[in-house]
Amino acid sequence: LLTAGHCICSGTNKVLRPNQIRAVLGLYRISEFSGNRIDPVVDPAYEVGIRTIVPHPGYNCGKPSNDIALLEVTERIYFTPTVRPICLSSGSDASARVDGLTATVAGWGWQQENRNLGDKADTLQRAVVDVFRNEECESMYRRGNRSRTIARTQLCAGKSVGGVDACWADSGGPLVTSNNVLIGIVSTGIGCARPGFPGIYTRVSEYAGWIVTVIERFNAS
């Protein structure tokens, strides 16, 4: 399973233990999940255990660089109508050329920036956003007096006029193209859906080699 590095960190900036993380697959509405281990043949949502947490070797809790991690599960994942594999954007093919595309971000995070005025979503939400060139994103942040360097390992997505974005607790969620390619992981930004401040994502294509290496190590053990 792929997620953001900061999602596997505790409030004291230490990497969590595997038994502190729950992984539920195929979930659409949080309130419908009973919390018990469910037979995947019978129920569309089911839980798997986590055996190993592997943050990127260049990631440090509390820092935005290399914000990516892999979770090794304890059992086989069964594919269902709501649990499917996804293609990874790779630096070696056209899937890495994402500037100017539209993509979909999904999650159960807060539905507005001011958490005192709303709640986290119970039903999985999605939003269609525009992917910006890193230079264009940096320029937008500068115009908003929030200078920000967007690294090669990051990308920006949102709407220049605001109003559409990931938000608090969407971290680790996917940014996916229309042809089912994972190009980004929700990472950081300023607020939620503010005009001129697109969300900042981990650029998956920059980590494809590391992901493959870790998975091969998992499979060999």
Automatic annotation (TrEMBL):
The keyword Coiled coil does not apply. It comes from the Eukaryota. Residues 1-216 form the Peptidase S1 domain. GO terms for molecular function: serine-type endopeptidase activity. SUPFAM superfamilies: Trypsin-like serine proteases (SSF50494). One of its GO terms (biological process) is proteolysis. InterPro entries: Peptidase_S1_PA, Peptidase_S1_PA_chymotrypsin, Trypsin_dom, TRYPSIN_HIS. Coiled coil: none annotated. Keywords: Disulfide bond. Belongs to the peptidase S1 family. CLIP subfamily. PANTHER family: ACROSIN-RELATED, HYALIN. This is Putative anionic trypsin-2.
